Amino acid sequence: MRAVIQRVKQAQVTVDGQQISRIDSGILTLLGVEAGDTEDELKKILTKICELRIFDDAEGKMNLSLQDVKGQHLIVSQFTLAGDCTQGRRPGFARAEKPGRARLLYERALELSREMGVPTQGGKFQAMMDVSLINDGPVTFVLDYAPATLAEAPLQRPGGRGPA
Fold it and tell me: Out of 14, 49, 124, 125, which could bridge 130 as a Cys pair, Cβ 3.0 to 4.6 Å?
């Protein structure tokens, strides 16, 4: 499971010219569900996102979480995060979870974020979306959670050329 998170002043999703979701200050999460991902990994990544201290305190230091600042969360499903660009010029998507299971995990991500007390909006699964944002900072992080079956395997360099 992969997530790109961006601290935003505002973000919105538009589908077919209609705005379907919008947040003010908070986090925009682009979420990529990979084959074999579990709800346990989803809980870990959502907890990390909601508790990660990436908002400034009174002294201007990143010391506050999304929950601390009572920010909002916009989660957008993005299967291209599971894309593999290591071979050739066309990305491969063999690592992406099948749509039915990916949809269930994506919808569960929305629920989990709300259960943590964060006002949460979502995109539209499998739709062509226009996502716009005003990046705050910019502050951007990439979270990469391997399925439990891969967690103990050493990381490999692109192309399988040994440990990273």
Answer: 14
Q: How far apart are CA 144 and CA 55, in angstroms?
A: 21
User: Alpha-carbon distance 124 to 163, whole Å?
Assistant: 37
Amino acid identity for residue 96 in this structure: A
Q: What is the pTM of this model?
A: 0.88
25-51 confidence digits (pLDDT tens) = 999 999 999 999 999 999 999 999 999
Q: Which candidate in 6, 79, 120, 121 is catalytic?
A: 79
Q: Are 132 and 123 in contact (CB under 8 A)?
A: no
- 8 Å CB contact between 97 and 38: no
User: Judging by DSSP bridges, how do beta strands 26-32 and 55-56 pair with one another?
Assistant: unpaired
Active-site residue 93, yes or no? Answer: no
Annotated catalytic, 78? yes
Looking only at the bridges linking them, the beta strands covering 130-144 and 2-15 are antiparallel
Answer whether residue 128 shows pLDDT above 80. yes
Catalytically annotated residue among 6, 12, 72, 78: 78
Hey, what amino acid is at 104? L
